[in-house]
Specification:
single chain, 501 residues, alpha/beta, Rossmann fold, 2 domains, golgi apparatus, membrane, transmembrane helix, glycosyltransferase, signal-anchor
């Protein structure tokens, strides 16, 4: 009896202790899951490589110095009138090469990289414009009509530099394996036009710029390769929506590299841009990368942050309405501001202190702010109904951003209620994903695998078969045929289903 009593007493003592221990353990687990300031695992890495240049200004300086010592090929200027026979001769050579690669597995394995011919344009379209930027970027009084520094805008849209610098680098220094530069046009899948349309728009006098645009138009369209395909296999960087505007309608068959599609009609006219033909590229971020350690150490006590121009035109009118709705709320920081060194510092500081970053439409559906938020570890809240995103065939933005319709966002109290309902666990998961995804939005030299330059060519690989289809179809369809094909994606109306015309 005594032994039985001792056993029972021991069990009665252990039970409360066990319950207390389990309770503490459960509480710790719940605290970890729902903690408002989560600590991110240090095993998730997204840090800058010290041997890689991520700064446009720094990279450009080195690029121009090296370009003086490198032997350059003669430019491709056409000195005589190109006849239909010239285009047919080139087409026969290209067709022969493509056929060889199609049937010779050893010559053309399934994993073969895209072959790109980079035009050797006269220096007034390329190096002279880069030198013009380099020699003037320290000027601080060159502003756009809304107060944004011109040189900073050029940096944000400098995708033409990053792609070109990678393509023409010595092959021994390049890291990307899914694209290779070829020096014979008959070996090319695609043709790259290295004209710096944004620099010329902002840094040349208006009439001088228009004259240069007309010269570039004539130079490119005089090429036998352009005449062969009517430009369908040519890549044209026009990343700022104002650039090349006076003549680009005459090159609308080319593959355009764009910041977005803009359905308002203010920047691109109907039939000029569409996803089946063109490619969306991210802006160059205006803030420094907040890596895994930075995000883990950040004290994010602001729920929602926005810094930028509060009044915009066209699709950006929603900004003023959102400011009225949000400006008086607690733990929300809405600031008027523009680009520049002071603006960069303020934006970077605000984003690193905030859980969510507001990304409303501006004059166009997109802005650099989205990519600033991504590399800052601040979860983007996208309120832009017409936005198209870079590399969406590869990346799932639902893992790193919240998408809210304009109608919902403008309902009184709706947006803040929605953001406060996002659980700490979901916030933690999205922050982890931001750390992992930031590499896809960091332009660099040398270009890095899975960086934006790499993803450009992965997306191009998906377009290539369709490009060749329409080039071949163009060459054999009877010109008077009513069955014309432009790949243009038309919006459905009440009587016609959606189609590809």
């Amino acid at each position: 009896m005594a032994g039985r009593h001792h056993s029972t007493a021991t069990k009665s003592l252990r039970s409360p202790l066990l319950l207390f221990t389990l309770s503490l353990l459960a509480f710790a687990i719940l605290f970890y899951i729902f903690s408002p300031s989560p600590t991110l695992p240090r095993t998730i890495h997204s840090t800058l490589n010290p041997n890689v240049d991520y700064s446009f200004v720094s990279s450009l300086e080195k690029f121009l110095i090296n370009s003086k010592s490198h032997h350059t090929l003669p430019d491709d200027t056409v000195t005589a009138t190109v006849t239909p026979q010239d285009a047919e001769k080139l087409d026969d050579l290209i067709s022969r090469k493509q056929t060889e690669r199609l049937y010779d597995d050893s010559f053309y394995p399934l994993s073969s990289p895209i072959r790109v011919y980079v035009y050797n344009m006269p220096s007034k379209f390329t190096y002279d414009l880069l030198w013009l930027f380099r020699n003037t970027y320290k000027e601080t009084n060159n502003l756009t009509s809304n107060g944004s520094p011109v040189h900073r805008l050029i940096e944000q849209h400098s995708i033409d530099y990053w792609l070109w610098a990678d393509l023409i680098a010595p092959e021994s220094e390049r890291l990307l394996k899914n694209v290779v530069r070829v020096h014979k046009q008959e070996e090319a899948d695609l043709f790259y036009i290295p004209f710096f349309t944004t620099i010329s728009f902002f840094l040349l006098e208006k009439q001088q710029c228009k004259a240069l645009y007309r010269e570039a138009l004539k130079w490119v369209t005089d090429q036998p390769a352009w005449k062969r395909s009517e430009g369908r296999d040519h890549i044209l960087p026009v990343h700022h929506p104002w650039s090349f505007k006076s003549v680009r309608k005459l090159m609308k068959t080319a593959i355009w590299l764009l910041p977005d599609m803009d359905s308002t009609g203010n920047w691109y006219k109907p039939g000029q841009v569409y996803l089946e033909k063109d490619l969306i590229l991210p802006y160059v971020a205006n803030v420094d990368l907040c890596d895994s350690k930075c995000i883990s150490d950040s004290k994010r006590n602001i729920l929602l942050f926005f810094r930028g121009r509060l009044k915009r035109n066209a699709g950006g009118k929603i900004r003023a309405k959102l400011v009225t709705e949000l400006s008086s709320a607690e733990d929300v920081d809405i600031e008027e501001g523009s680009a520049g060194e002071a603006g960069k510092a303020a934006a970077q500081s605000g984003m690193r202190k905030s859980v969510f970053c507001l990304n409303p439409a501006g004059d166009t559906p997109s802005s650099a702010r989205l990519f600033d938020a991504i590399v800052s570890g601040c979860i983007p809240v996208v309120i832009s109904d017409e936005l198209e995103l870079p590399f969406e065939g590869i990346l799932d933005y639902r893992k790193i951003a919240l998408f809210v319709s304009s109608d919902d966002a403008l309902q009184p109290g709706w947006l803040l209620t929605f953001l406060r309902s996002v659980s700490p666990a979901q916030i933690r998961e999205m922050q982890l994903n931001l750390v992992k995804h930031s590499r896809h939005f960091l332009y660099s030299h040398p270009a890095q695998p899975m960086g934006p330059e790499d993803l450009v060519w992965r997306m191009m690989a998906g377009k290539l078969v369709n490009v060749k289809l329409h080039v071949r179809r163009l060459q054999r369809v009877v010109k008077e045929s009513r069955s014309l094909c432009t790949c243009e994606c038309r919006r459905p109306n009440s009587t016609n289903p959606p189609l590809f015309s």
